């Protein structure tokens, strides 16, 4: 029996095979696209609430009593169990000390990896319990939820409000562990807050609340009307505002302070701006009297008040009454708990 197909039949078979191959290729393409979408969706869902890009390497948990000291991870890794201790605020690696407080959750997150948070180690409340780094998603709220505000400055556990996180010992030395302690003996800190991600949708609202690049810090300094109140000694100062600080600078490089006089000091320090206007209300400050010719009590200075404003403003509306002697060779702290 002759089973050979006619040329027309062979052409139809080839056309059917070609159509089937095309449909299979399209199906494979859909599968690949679906898999890619699933991977992207999974990555987005697993990304932390605050991206690292929204924060900065300037985020700190800074000791108010000594603003050169901050909370640091003991080693550079992001491993669970990495001890938190006191260390210098500056110097590499910055990722060891970049933390911010997230008021929406009460977590203290690492700015470089916001999925890592500060926890206490053990269940229950024990003075001296270790404070370390751990996954934000792990553990009960007792271990990782804090209440913090600038006015108090203490890092208080929300579910044990008589307990705070703070230095184990009184000395402000590098390596002093951060532990659980009674809040009545706890020191105060300044902690960075969450920042808006610059890549997020800002809608149609323009960024109007800004500082100009030319706006610099001006200080109005009043020396008291007392005998010996003036001084020619160099005064080094660092001022902490609610959301920024000046770092250390010389207050009176080219001048002496005279009794009963108001000095207007143009520091040249640029006031941070961008889309979040930084204020000039003084929260705390540290002044060190370096002495004019060695360290002598005769270099004492009586500071009556100090006020900060922008160079574009003519009126200083928030003066701080100090009314204190600052003696040669001594360090004076105001607003520090």
Folded structure, characterized:
The protein has helices spanning 7-46, 141-144; strands at residues 61-63, 69-73, 84-88, 99-102, 107-110, 116-120, 131-135, 146-147, 155-157, 163-167, 178-182, 189-191, 216-223, 235-241, 249-250, 262-270, 282-289, 301-310, 320-326, 331-334. The chain is an alpha+beta fold. The chain has two domains: 52-191, Trefoil (Acidic Fibroblast Growth Factor, subunit A), CATH 2.80.10; 216-334, PLAT/LH2 domain (Lipoxygenase-1, Sandwich), CATH 2.60.60. The longest helix is centred in the first third of the chain and has 40 residues, at 7-46. The chain is built from two helices and 20 strands. The radius of gyration is 30 Å and the shape is globular.
Inertia-based shape: globular
Give the biggest beta sheet. Answer: 4 strands, antiparallel
Give Rg in angstroms. 30 Å
- Tell me the count of domains: 2
The share of residues in extended strands comes to 25-35%
Record keyword descriptors for this entry.
four-stranded antiparallel sheet, Lipoxygenase-1, disordered N terminus, 2 domains, single chain, globular, 337 residues, 20 strands, Trefoil (Acidic Fibroblast Growth Factor, subunit A), alpha+beta
